[in-house]
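Our consortium's second objective concerns turning raw sequence data into structural hypotheses that experimental partners can test. To show how far this objective has progressed, the report includes one record in full. It was chosen at random from the queue rather than selected for favorable results. The single chain below, 220 residues long, was entered without modification.
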Amino acid sequence: MRLVMGRKKLLTKEDVIKAINHRLVKTGAAPTVEELRAALGVGSTRTVLRYLKWLEDEGDIERWSGSRGLRPLKAPGKGLETRSVPLVGEAPAGPLMLAEENFEGWVRLPKDFLRPASAAYFLLRVRGDSMNRSKVNGVPIESGDMVLVKQQRTAESGDVVVALIDGEATIKRFERGQGYYVLKPESTNVKHKPIVVTRDFSVLGVVSKVLKQGSKLLDL
C-alpha cells in the first residue's frame, strides 16, 4: 500500500519502516523526524509526520513523546528468500528482553543463514573487545559486528554463547566443569577474565554466525 500525498513523493510502508530500522540497527536509536526526512528524501517534516501518523494508525509503529520516541511493532514484509530477524540490543548491556514488544528493529537475512528453519533467532550488536580473538565459523567477533544467535537454553562445551549474568548480557565461550561452568573471554585485552558460575546465570542462545559490520545487511 502507498500513501498518496498530492504530488509529493510516494512511499510505501516498507520504505518508511526500512528507514526506521536502518537507523535503529546502525546506531541503536530511532531516527528523529528530521533524520527520517533526510533518509526518505522528502521535502518537509510535515510530510514525515503524516507518514508516521499513517503507520501508527495502521499499528505498524508505536510512538511516544520525545524526539526519538518511536519503534516498529511489526517485522518488514517477508520475501521468498529472506526472513526477518529481530534485533534485541547489544552486549555487553543490560538484560535482553526477547519478547516481541521489546525488539528494537528487524533485519531481513537470507534464509540460508537460518538453519534449522524451525529455530528462533535474534541479532545482537557487539560492543567491546572481550571476544576479539574468538571466531565463529572462521569469522572473528569484533566491536561493531552483529552476531546471529540461535535462541536456546542449553549449550555444549566450546560453544560461543550469549549469557545473562548479574543482569547483564555477555558473549563468551562456554565450558563445562565438574559442577560448575566457565564463561571465557577470548581477547587481546588482558583485563577480561574468565567467569566461573554454578547456577546464577542463564544461556539465552548460541552464536551461529558473525555478520561483519552488520548494519550493511539492511539492504538485503
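The partners drew two points from this record. The domain at 2-72 is CATH 1.10.10.10 (Arc Repressor Mutant, subunit A). The two ends are 21 Å apart (CA to CA). Both points have been shared with the crystallography group to help prioritize constructs.
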